[in-house]
Amino acid sequence: MKKSKIITIAIISLAALFAVLILLNLLIPEKAKVPKQTQGNQAMPAAANPNGAGRPDNANAPSNADGSGRGDRANAGTASRGTPPEGTGRPDNANAPANSGKAANAGAQGGGGARGGGGSRNATAIRVTPVSASTIEKSVILNGEILARNQVTIFPTIGGKLVETRLGVGDRVSSGQVVAMVDPSRPGEVYSRSPVVSTVSGTVIQAPFSIGDTVTTQSAVYIVGDLSSLLVETFVPERFVASVKQGMRAQLKFEAIGGEIFIAEVTEINPVLDPASRTLRIRLRFVNPDARIKAGMFATISLVTNRKVDVPVVARTSVINTYGSWIVFVADENNTARRREVTLGLDNEDYFEILGGLSLGDKVVSAGQNFLSDGDPVRVVE
Questions:
Q1: Considering the entire predicted model, what is its pTM?
Q2: Residue 190 sits in which domain range?
Q3: Domain annotation covers residue 87
């Protein structure tokens, strides 16, 4: 019921609206609905000039030479044909000077010059480093442990109860010295004490047992080492095994001795790899021993796997990898950046060996090269 009422009201409203529109159409005069069209090119004058000519938009504009007052549309048509009558005023600004067009053209030419000047690029500030001959080394970083060169484990000759220990960790011991006593007695059986004798001279590194412990012939009562001669033990990954040779140099750093570098060389290479870790055990000796280095210290080892002397090198930061090619930028004598594709050889953390593309003395851009293109002007700064 409500829906039918709404439809009825909508129909009555539309009918009333059409009725109002028809009534307004009848009441408004025909002249008001359709503006009178001007005949020809003549326009209704707004004000008459003294010569009988009137301008519709600017009464102060000068009249034409023939005395006819022509509107803006007439003047525009005459100007488009390129034959304006002498003395014709401008349709939009009658008071504008006659050479305003030249001024406009001059301004346009000036703007074009400004655009042309803005196209030049400023010189990019860069730093350069000449290509020089130097020594370059390829190294691998490893972790190692400091060991005593002669390290021996002391075992008792008979099992029993440890009843006496005569040395502690850090004590000096001589070969043949008695270091402990073992009582092999059992319940109901009494035996004499058996001495434990050191087989080497050195310093006690470990003493894992205490008095009262039961030991066997496989128990390490003491570990004695010769701390006067230390070595470094490390393990080399399989991919670097082919590069390891006797006499190779390495640089060592210690957390306990910060800021100093110690030199060691390879003295022992295991003939087989560890099947579990796929690493090769090597040992190194110190070239210049230092009393501050102790057995058991942890060392960071930089092992030199390849070395070349007196070859052209550049800083690693100067070289850019672009779509598989290695390039550098060189500053020429005109302070212009030139792109060069180079061939690289041995590399390390700081330098690249140059096999081709550069010559000794070339000024390679070492800072600011990431924003350069071939032919850009540059400004070298220190």
A1: 0.49
A2: 150-225
A3: no
